[in-house]
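User: Fold this; tokens only.

Assistant: Input:
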Amino acid sequence: METRECPIVTMNKTTLTPKAIIHQKFGNKACYKVEEVKESIQNGCPGLAIPHKGPSLYRCCLELPEFSVVSDIFKKKKDAEQCAAEMALKRLGVDPSADNHTEKEPWDALIERVAYLFSNESLHPLGGHLRAAFQRDGDLCGFVPASVVTICDSKLSNLCKLLNRKAESDPLLALSFVMRAATRLSGSVFTSKDQLSIQKQHSYSPEIVGSIDITQSGSSDSIRVEGLHIPASLNKIIQPVSLTISSTSTGYFLDAIAQKLGVTDANKVLLSRTIGKASSEMRLYFTAPESFALDLSADLGNLEGLYEGPLNERASYFCCQGIYGDAIMASIGYTWRSKDLFYEDISLQSYYRMLISKVPNGNYKLSREAILAADLPSAFTTKSNWRGSFPREILCSFCRQHRLSEPVFSSSSQPLKVSCLSSSKKKADIADADSQKQKHANGTDTANDKSESPEPGSIFTCEIKIFSKCQDLIIECPPKEIYKKQNDSLHNASLKILTWLNEYFKDPGMPVEKLNNLADIFDIRFYPENFFKEFLLCPSIHNLQHQGKQEGNLPEARSVNELYASSEKDVCYLKIEGSDSGVYPSNGSLLCIRYDVSLVIEGQHMKELLESNDEFEFEMGTAAVISPLEAVLTQMSVGQSAFFSTELPSHEFVLAAADDPGKIISLLTSKTCHLDYSATLLCVTEPPEERMEQALFSPPLSKQRVEYAVQQIKNSCATTLVDFGCGSGSLLDSLLDYSTSLEKVVGVDISPKALTRAAKILHSKLSMKTDSGIKSAVICDGSILEFDSRLCGFDIGTCLEVIEHMEEDQACQFGNVALSYFRPKILIVSTPNYEYNVILQRSTLTNQEEDSDEKTESQSCKFRNHDHKFEWTREQFNNWATELAGRNNYCVEFSGVGGSADVEPGFASQIAVFTRGILSQEDHTSNNERHAHSCKVIWEWDNNNRTESAF
């Protein structure tokens, strides 16, 4: 091997990780065994009797020939493996940070890798290409195209990037490194001066020849693969192309592609990296400049002068590499160490779907399979109401599509301090994603998550940063809003960035000042120099308005931004059919529709179906569908159908939806067209009660109920309180924000999951609040329909929005148990006023008796919550409470919150306040009942840290 002369390049040394050093020393003899650790944790809530399974944790056992080590416990498997490797190195006395453990010089490693690929040492990693090379005719026999070696071997590609970062985006530069390395191996490989190919100088061993099965095939069959021809000129449209690959001894798919590109053989064809998922063989193929093979002495840092022909912007946009001249896009090739040819067809529809997938709203549309109906929602409300890929997933996909680094999510939490919530203004700033409607429109753990372990009762913020592959900061979204759930902070921050990016892609040519103003609206900072460097080609690819009606061109389309930003004015020929059922959609409700969209040729009786969907769900009021469709649906009731027309959106969306884009292109280029929509509103599911109420009332109805209960507590000077049906402890939690006379609080419910959350929140808050008058707090698991002597005789009892979740006979049973046995001095019961639903839901009030007798599917629209078993009118509630009070020596007063008693239809939440009369001498409880404990205490807190609670 001759002396290695290293060209002038930029080299980057990288320090090996502990795991890489272990592999360097032991190879396959190092065995990593990762196991999941299942631990029950209290998660910051001492004394909680309900075991709580924490997040998945992992430990790793690393077995080496002489010893084994076991790592600490980590949230991620790879962290456990690195820890085990680091522990093993410590036992071996090896310092991972020492200079002598850095990798070899990239240039030496590159030469060594090329030598390995053309050696007899192992199964050839490029076996399929080598097999095809031996089946080529004449002087080409045995020559492997150098572009195949450069691109298809990932280790070589990575070494080229270490030599010069520009090799990431310049396939010609990477190829030049490999060719120069091959010239240093004159004793083992052969390179031709005028051919971009490499051949082993000596014969391969029989083992290698046998492993790649070099045989002559007698079959004359051929394979036909559909690809796409992408002209370099934007004035020419993309056309399908058929590649005919012979299966005879002369067959090599790269030679067939070379013929389509107008060159003699595969040695003159360059390959891009793969497009899309890593397992795909979809690539772009283009020709190498004629002068390149003849002059390998060119400056490796500047090869731009060698390119012949214009930059192919569309092809370059897809693979984020410089592609010059016409290109072929095809999905064909040999996978790693495979000798079998992999191939699949690429259609025009596939191309346009890939094109719109690189835009945030296009990615979302594809996830919904509703390209002409769906749109990226303007707000993230709830995970249950969101349809399609989540914002975080879309953002990660966007970064991968544009060859950026994975986004860095920095999620942080802080305790929900009482002092932070003392003012109503600060409380209003806490964004609960279940009810948040942001003023401005705003996925799977990644290695770039930097999340803190949340404390119980925490609030969350999320910061996102997006970097280029060279780690230049492009976009950052610093945390502004705070959320009650960690996922909500991640998704809302992601949606902000996606929405801002979406605005850019709708008008890539917008001035920097306008883009900056939009960034300010969404609380985003971006760095123009780095941003425009990464999205340099977007204006020419996504802005179709620069194209005129030239031959073979699409006509100028109306901007998709301009169309979808408007609403009713874009709807033409609206016609609604069907009888009015009285059930209308409202903001926050889930709609299910059936629709189809057709391309109509004006002036002719021609209609081409583009898209249809039998069941399509979305949340109303979040801009989850195009605005013309949403505007029409607001005028419809369940069961009605609408027919309307709109102008064309951007052609890339129309062609992505069409089964035969070629036919549609011919219509668009020669005819005047518009879209016809037909939609039927199948059903409407009203939003959960809390979200409906919060949308209508300020402060929210739930807060008004708490304030009402607090005022009753203050007036009564109560020191003990029991909350029947406490759920997640929202009432008890809120009560701690007020100054009251309470010393002891007890919550009872039947949901262990809800009780766990209640215990964590109360523990966090009580431990932090040193001036609280609360001396004892208890959480119990049990039914409020069953007697427990420990719940008797409290000063005040509350049962807010609980009884409607029972059957009506159970609600009556609770009333009897509460007033006959528990006998609090005061009992406050609230429940929805059924008559108020006409305002909340904008629906026609139906007969309540029909709801009781017939549990129809439409009940979820009539009641405020799908879990409600009944909802009473004012008269029904008054009758129930009056009879109950009369039987148990209580007097009752009626009130409510939300609305007014003097204005129809009364209060939104009706409230009965029962006050106990003078107790008689008669005791209704037996000796056994006095000691009955039907509830299980699952958590208790004592201000004096006593070992036993007074409960």
